[in-house]
Write a sequence for this structure.
């Protein structure tokens, strides 16, 4: 019999029995611990704390963690194994998902349908009654592919190393977990799965390819243009979805490059293609997708903003889970941090990072060129959390890419920032970021009254397509044909504006 060892997780107060020698990476991902670098020990995103028992200190631990942190019991989960009984405190045990409950027009039909947002990090499945558009059940989870890396390029490299795009691990993983979520939603409602008629999925171009079993090789190199990015229709048996009936499964088409169907769905959800005034939609994630235009002209692009807005590559970065600094404000000349859950600070999330740098600029602790004014090289927030010079540089790179990308798109259609009537911010970061702070650091140089957090526009657009055959088969192709995609990577003007926007406003 294989020997097993108990691993107790706090604050979940849950004990797992795992085989001796099991990598902690294999068991902790399901409990919210993320592995941004794909388990290579190059970041601090998977750090855990040993409360009882012991874990050997590895070379990667010594490189990524301070001596004080190591002595306090912190380790990198990706470098650790279950050898002896232990109690672990996991820094991220929640899965915050931005769902959507917006009401809109629909075409009544018989049966059930499901709308699915295939995010790079998180997944949302909504089961709906097609006769009235009512959401019957919601299921969420972390994308299992994230264990192989936080960004899409890591997924691409992993898929290429496997060499089998249609039956590779990333494809099988995402199909399996979405099938289980869908089955769970059906079980929650106790409705007959044979009533499930249609499923509509949206996601970025890499998620589209991996789910559909399309080779990602064209996305691995310049010009990063897919050769097959249209509407994909699959069957439930083909996907291995046992017990989910036999619905038509549609993954909506991408727009071009790394601008996927999640952005196309966002255009539908915000009515950008029907707008008379100049509007923009920005999803401030790793790729930083932006669409600008109106009913006559739409142009889009993606910028390699990096994961700073999701606190990736930030030394003490984490998702917006318990213990994360989600906001920073000034009280007199002092920084005041809001910590999620009113507990001791563990790290900082994207919205907190933007706030902290904004406040640091106001105090003079951070100079317009991004340099820290003090001699110890950190901006103290709430012990033990602080920002380093490299953290601030990561934010500069991200905000410079977004600001430059927006300006280039506006220039392409002969407009200026002042001409924008509305700037919709999609996704979790856009929903929670402080608009004043975003403007202060030069991320969004648009009048505050024109900035509108729009929620999960990808999921909303997926539901709109699910609930209207006219929209799915007629409106959607028409809107997609209106959008012109450009590549910013080789655009000299983008490079010029990127450098100009690296600095913070004085």
């Amino acid at each position: 019999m294989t020997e097993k060892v108990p691993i107790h997780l706090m604050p979940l107060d849950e004990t797992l029995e795992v085989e001796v020698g099991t990598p902690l990476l294999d068991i902790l991902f399901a409990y919210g611990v993320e592995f941004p670098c794909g388990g290579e020990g190059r970041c601090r995103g998977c750090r855990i704390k040993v409360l009882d028992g012991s874990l050997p200190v590895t070379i990667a631990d010594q490189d990524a963690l301070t001596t004080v942190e190591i002595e306090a019991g912190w380790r990198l989960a990706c470098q650790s194994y279950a050898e002896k009984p232990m109690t672990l405190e996991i820094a991220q045990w929640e899965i915050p998902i931005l769902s959507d409950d917006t009401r809109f027009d629909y075409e009544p039909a018989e049966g059930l349908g499901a709308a699915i947002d295939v995010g790079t990090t998180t997944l949302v499945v909504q089961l709906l009654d097609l006769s009235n558009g009512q959401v019957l059940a919601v299921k969420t989870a972390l994308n299992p592919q994230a264990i192989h890396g936080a960004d899409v390029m890591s997924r691409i490299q992993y898929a290429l190393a496997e060499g089998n795009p249609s039956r590779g691990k990333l494809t099988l993983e995402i199909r399996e977990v979405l099938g289980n979520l869908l089955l769970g939603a059906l079980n929650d409602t106790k409705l007959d799965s044979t009533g499930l008629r249609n499923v509509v999925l949206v996601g970025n171009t890499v998620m589209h390819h991996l789910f559909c079993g399309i080779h990602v090789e064209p996305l691995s190199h310049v010009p990063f243009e897919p050769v097959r990015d249209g509407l994909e229709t699959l069957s439930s048996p083909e996907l291995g979805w046992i017990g989910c009936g036999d619905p038509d499964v549609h993954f909506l088409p991408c727009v071009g490059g790394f601008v996927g169907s999640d952005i196309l769905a966002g255009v539908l959800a915000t009515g950008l293609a029907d707008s008379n005034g100049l509007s923009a939609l920005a999803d401030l994630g790793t790729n930083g997708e932006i669409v600008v235009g109106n009913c006559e002209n739409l142009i889009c692009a993606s910028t390699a903003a990096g994961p700073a807005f999701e606190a990736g590559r930030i030394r003490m970065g984490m998702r917006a889970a318990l213990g994360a600094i989600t906001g920073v404000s000034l009280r007199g000349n002092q920084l005041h941090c809001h910590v999620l859950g009113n507990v001791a600070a563990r790290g900082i999330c994207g919205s907190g990072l933007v706030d902290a740098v904004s406040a640091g600029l106001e105090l003079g602790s951070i100079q317009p060129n991004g340099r820290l004014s003090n001699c110890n090289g950190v901006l103290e927030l709430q012990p033990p959390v602080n920002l380093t010079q490299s953290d601030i540089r990561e934010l500069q790179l991200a905000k410079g890419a977004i600001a430059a990308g927006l300006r280039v798109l506006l220039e392409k259609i002969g407009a200026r920032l002042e001409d924008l009537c509305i700037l919709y911010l999609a996704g979790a970061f856009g929903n929670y970021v402080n608009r004043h702070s975003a403007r202060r650091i030069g991320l969004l140089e648009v009048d505050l009254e024109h900035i509108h957090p729009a929620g999960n526009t990808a999921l909303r657009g997926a539901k709109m397509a699910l609930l209207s055959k006219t929209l799915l088969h007629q409106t959607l192709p028409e809107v997609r044909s209106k959008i012109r995609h450009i590549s910013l990577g080789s655009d000299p003007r983008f490079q010029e504006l990127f450098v100009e926007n690296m600095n913070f406003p004085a």
